[in-house]
């Protein structure tokens, strides 16, 4: 009996101990539950939502581009595209599943091996759940087929995107440029998450690249609810992005068309510039290419055809092409010699048809081998006397010539707004020593004085030089973008400007007038090298300077038998150059023309410049604001809101829009 009582007491004590432990544990559990569900409920609600809700950026509409009159040059067109998204899970498993899905999708829309490899590589690079574009510009039939086979295509979806359309492709491709897919190099250079968006296009050339950040806009965002494997269940919220800024270019489309027609069938370039504001009114490089090809994605065959064309249509010859400026550079030599007091305004120097250098080497006067006689600087420019400028360059020296050339825009990019622009080459003592480990010689100075030797410039630089001489020596800078505005704001052209607002280059005014007089006599004097290309319309006369740049060195035997340029193959003929301005009495427009292998400036380039400057004065784009039409557009960033039915047709023509 006593033993049973002891056993009962022991049991009761253990039961109380165990009960106490249970109560304590339940209390701790209740306290923890209270802490999690009441005190920190907001924190865990956010964490739960993070697992349930994904936020994805939305691609903004790209800004539009217009010419100076408000004519659209680049806009956006809605199009259907098919996307693929990898499922949540191990990366290797997700890629394998994507490859399987792409094989099935290939039976609906053909996907080449190259495209398939691109898609897989992009999926490996992208963050989880970032869709990858498989194909754009789908037809209605293709959309229907994909939707019909949707159960067998997990991760595949149809989306509405935008395609860039260029309305004047052959005419404006070198200026406007084009957009293209984001490359691995672009991703390495920027950590902007918007670059990983499906179908994202960024500027690759021209203004599209130079003003890419402004045109790109700001991305929006979309909140979607996803299931345990990361597939979208429903859309919760959407905030549209901010469309990119619209740009008003300085280019006058009507003048651009005229210049392109005038240069047709040549391998050439021309630049027309306002000498007061710096506006580039026309910049043409022929032949050209269709930038819509690059916007949609160029094929390997198309790319090779463009690369193999001997006239290099992909090269913007006006801003990238570099050529010896030839005799057009003599204005630089003249100003350098006058400002350095190497020669005086009325000093006369002799021309016997050649000069002798040490070692019995002769430098010839190419224009008049018999010699011009005694000339001052105005007459030397008028008749383009090489011997005069050999001596003028010697007296000025390479350093002073370099200083004058830098003031007039040579030796560096002009900053016009084209990232691919070349700076040319202004040779100097230091450059020669670094490149060839040789000191600068007298022969180098002679060559530089007439724009030959190692000297290289772009047609754009020649236009800038001409504009700065014509406007009285003001540091006017070339520009391609006249104005910009938000997507919902009206674009307005800049006000008409009568005088340059740029700082002075501090050339002696009398020396500039002498150079201007020489350029006037080149065209409007019977003994001038471009007299046959003068403008006879009242009040529209032009001044200018011819230039011929050697491509092949002329040998003594060829000189002796007076070998004609027409006897040489096309690619060995001289380049033809001319730069001029008009009207003479009140300069407003400058023009530079370079015709590759055109044989002579007075023969080929001067007549073209005459026609261009005459047409420019008739249009008078800088002083006729009434030609501007409103460029006020809705903030959608598109000019065509309906997806193209065929997906690959050309943009509408001017009359169709």
Automatic annotation (TrEMBL):
Domain Penicillin-binding protein dimerisation: 59-236
Molecular function via GO: penicillin binding; peptidoglycan L,D-transpeptidase activity; serine-type D-Ala-D-Ala carboxypeptidase activity
Biased composition (Basic and acidic residues): 620-629
Residue ranges, annotated region (Disordered): 416-436, 619-657
A GO CC term assigned to this protein in UniProt: plasma membrane
Keywords annotated in UniProt: Carboxypeptidase, Cell inner membrane, Cell membrane, Cell shape, Cell wall biogenesis/degradation, Hydrolase, Membrane, Peptidoglycan synthesis, Protease, Transmembrane, Transmembrane helix
Domain Penicillin-binding protein transpeptidase: 269-613
Protein's GO biological process: cell wall organization; peptidoglycan biosynthetic process; proteolysis; regulation of cell shape
Record bears the keyword Transmembrane helix: yes
Regions crossing the membrane: 15-35
PANTHER family reported in the protein's UniProt record: PEPTIDOGLYCAN D,D-TRANSPEPTIDASE, PEPTIDOGLYCAN D,D-TRANSPEPTIDASE MRDA
Highest taxon of source: Bacteria
Location of the protein in the cell: Cell membrane; Membrane
Protein name, UniProt field: Penicillin-binding protein 2
NCBIfam families assigned: pbp2_mrdA
Membrane topology value: Single-pass membrane protein
EC number: 3.4.16.4
SUPFAM superfamilies referenced in this protein's UniProt entry, alphabetically: beta-lactamase/transpeptidase-like, Penicillin binding protein dimerisation domain
Organism whose genome encodes this protein: Vineibacter terrae
């Amino acid at each position: 009996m006593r033993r049973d009582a002891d056993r009962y007491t022991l049991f009761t004590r253990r039961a109380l101990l165990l009960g106490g432990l249970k109560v304590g544990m339940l209390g701790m559990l209740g306290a923890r539950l209270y802490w999690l569900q009441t005190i920190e409920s907001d924190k865990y609600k956010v964490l739960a939502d993070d697992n349930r809700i994904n936020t994805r950026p939305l691609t903004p509409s790209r800004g539009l581009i217009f010419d100076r009159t408000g004519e659209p040059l680049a806009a956006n067109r809605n199009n259907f595209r098919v996307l693929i998204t990898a499922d949540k899970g191990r990366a290797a498993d997700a890629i394998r599943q994507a490859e399987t899905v792409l094989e099935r999708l290939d039976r609906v829309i053909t996907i080449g091996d190259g495209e398939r490899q691109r898609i897989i590589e992009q999926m490996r690079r992208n963050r989880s759940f970032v869709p990858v574009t498989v194909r754009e510009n789908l037809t209605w039939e293709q959309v229907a087929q994909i939707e019909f086979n949707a159960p067998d295509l997990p991760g595949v979806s149809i989306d509405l995107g935008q395609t860039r359309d260029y309305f004047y492709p052959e005419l404006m491709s070198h200026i406007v440029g084009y957009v293209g897919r984001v490359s691995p190099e672009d991703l390495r250079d920027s950590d902007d998450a918007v670059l990983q968006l499906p179908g994202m296009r960024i500027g690759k050339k021209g203004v599209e690249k130079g003003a890419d950040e402004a045109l790109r806009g700001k991305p929006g965002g979309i909140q979607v609810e996803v299931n345990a494997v990361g597939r979208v269940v429903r859309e919760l919220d959407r905030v549209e992005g901010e469309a990119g800024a619209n740009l008003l270019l300085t280019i006058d489309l009507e003048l651009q068309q005229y210049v392109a027609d005038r240069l047709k069938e040549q391998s050439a370039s021309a630049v027309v510039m306002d000498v007061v504001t710096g506006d580039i009114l026309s910049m043409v490089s022929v032949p050209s290419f269709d930038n819509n090809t690059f916007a949609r994605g160029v094929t390997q065959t198309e790319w090779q055809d463009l690369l193999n064309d001997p006239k290099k249509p992909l090269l913007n010859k006006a801003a990238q092409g570099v050529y010896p400026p030839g005799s057009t550079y003599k204005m630089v030599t003249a100003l350098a010699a006058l400002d350095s007091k190497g020669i005086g305004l009325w000093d006369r120097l002799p021309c016997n048809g050649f000069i002798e250098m040490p070692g019995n080497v002769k430098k010839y006067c190419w224009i008049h081998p018999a010699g011009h006689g005694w000339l001052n600087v105005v007459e030397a420019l008028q008749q383009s006397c090489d011997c005069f400028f050999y001596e003028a360059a010697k007296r000025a020296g390479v350093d002073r010539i370099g200083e004058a050339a830098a003031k007039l825009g040579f030796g560096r990019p002009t900053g016009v707004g084209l990232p691919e622009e070349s700076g040319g080459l202004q040779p100097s003592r230091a450059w020669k020593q670094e490149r060839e480990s040789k000191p600068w010689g007298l022969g180098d100075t002679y060559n530089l004085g007439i724009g030959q030797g190692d000297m290289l410039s772009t047609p754009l630089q020649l236009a800038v030089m001409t504009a700065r001489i014509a406007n009285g020596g003001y540091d006017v800078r070339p520009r391609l973008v006249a104005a910009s505005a938000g997507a919902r704001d009206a674009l307005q052209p800049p006000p008409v400007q009568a005088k340059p607002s740029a700082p002075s280059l501090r050339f002696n005014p009398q020396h500039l007038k002498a150079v201007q007089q020489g350029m006037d006599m080149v065209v409007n004097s019977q003994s001038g090298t471009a007299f046959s290309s003068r403008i006879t319309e009242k009040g529209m006369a032009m001044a200018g300077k011819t230039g011929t740049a050697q491509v092949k060195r002329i040998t003594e035997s060829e000189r002796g038998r007076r070998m004609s340029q027409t006897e040489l193959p096309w690619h060995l003929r001289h380049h033809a150059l001319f730069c001029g301005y008009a009207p003479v009495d009140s300069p407003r427009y400058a023009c530079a023309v370079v015709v590759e292998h055109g044989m002579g400036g007075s023969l080929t380039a001067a007549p073209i410049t005459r026609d261009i400057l005459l047409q420019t004065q008739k249009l008078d784009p800088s002083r006729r604001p009434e030609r501007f039409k409103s460029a006020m557009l809705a903030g959608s960033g598109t000019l065509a809101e309906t997806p193209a039915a065929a997906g690959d047709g050309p943009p509408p023509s001017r009359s169709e829009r």
